[in-house]
Amino acid sequence: MLTLKQIYDSPEQIVAGLEKKHFADAQATIERVMAIDAERKAAQQKKDAASAEMNKISKSIGALMAQGKKDEANAAKAQTGELKQAVATYEQEMDTKEQELTNLLLTIPNVPYAIVPEGASAEDNLAVVLGNWPNRPMADAIAKNGAVALRDWDSATDETIAAERIAQSEKLPHWELAKKYNLIDFDLGVKISGAGFPVYIGQGARLQRALINFFLAEANKAGYTEIMPPTVVNQASGYGTGQLPDKEGQMYHCEVDDLYLIPTAEVPVTNLYRDVIIDEDKLPIKNCAYTECFRREAGSYGKDVRGLNRLHEFSKIEIVRIDTPEHSDASHKEMLAHVEGLLKKLELPYRILRLSGGDMSFTAALCYDFEVYSEAQHRWLEVSSTSNFDTYQANRLKCRYRRNEDKKVTLCHTLNGSALALPRIVAALLENNQTEDGIRIPAALQPYFGDDMIR
């Protein structure tokens, strides 16, 4: 949630940032915020003035009684009674305006950093890194230009992609490989729960466990403390990290107990620090967590949801950082390097995208997506979003730190990223490593899987 100080300090910059995120009526909304705040302040001033007058008169009552001025004392008592009622009215008005202000602020997204590219959709995202890619033209395009907008991607690489598609025409998609090697049963998942809840079997289950253990081990090496949090959260936690209000209806809600299934471990792990003041010496805090994640994926349909491409329940390892404003940029870069390192070790072709304003999440100030290439589907699959939220989540959470220099308490920065989400990683591993003898397991994963092949 934006702070009032941010809005008052640079309203024009806030409006421009919200417009970059394509937030409707940015100017009118910010003006409404300041108007409600002015009304709240006016009620506060009236309440303070009435309280001061009431206290002044109350102090005079004893003196009037001592002087035998009973009628004047009784009149003073009546006046304090009227003032007390006025104070209560002003307090109620203040509370109403405070709630109205909070409700409005909750509808306003975070303001993107200046580095975020302009754009209305995913086509305006910038490809900034291309890794593990055997064909040089695409990598050279990025190296030459620094970043390539996805809307210009095909024009730069049509010839390369066309050649690859011809060479890869015999590749099987992961849902066929899963059936061939008895790794995943999608029909059983439909029987038990519904579409989007696959059942992993035998070597498929072992591959899931291998990836989970590999990702957690790598996070541990990078200094992340493992957390095992609940997978249901209350309303306060959902509001704290920005999943609530649930504008798109993506959260599974347990209505009887008013609890929510988590869409990502970001929610419970970041909420560990809700209403907490942290000593600066303890920052940055680095946590990781493996959880199941649950998303309704309302509105999803078509070829993009086949197989593991889009699920309602899936496994994911999340990395979360709490940091100072001065160090959060360095933290973000370290997180990006960590995720990139995982993809290098898994030997998967990947690209890193800096998201445009129109494609960013509601809460992020800066976000990079990692995508891996699917050799059978001939498309890129998102496997991680790594974001810096600046003080936006921290303000909702009241997550603060005490500075060493002057002991001042101020808002932290929060950051998180997937390291990594399993479904599309599994899809790419199966599709990109299929051979006549089976599916090759990358060397880095073999100690966790216990074999070099799926046969």
**CATH architecture label of the largest domain:** 2-Layer Sandwich
CATH topology (level 3) name of the largest domain: BirA Bifunctional Protein, domain 2
Which outline best applies? elongated
DSSP strand content: 15-25%
What does this entry look like structurally?
The chain has about 450 residues and is α+β, with helices and mostly antiparallel strands. The chain folds into two domains: about 5-105, Helix Hairpins, CATH 1.10.287; about 120-455, Bira Bifunctional Protein, Domain 2 (BirA Bifunctional Protein, domain 2, 2-Layer Sandwich). Helices cover about 45% and strands about 20% of the residues. It has a nine-stranded mixed beta sheet with strand order 2-1-12-13-14-17-11-10-5. Strands 6-8-7 form a three-stranded antiparallel beta sheet. The chain has a three-stranded mixed beta sheet with strand order 9-15-16, with no helix packed on it. A hairpin with a 6-residue loop joins strand 15 (about 400) and strand 16. Helix 3 runs antiparallel to helix 4 (about 70-105) and helix 7 (about 175-180) crosses helix 14 (about 420-430). The model has no long low-confidence stretch (mean pLDDT about 95).
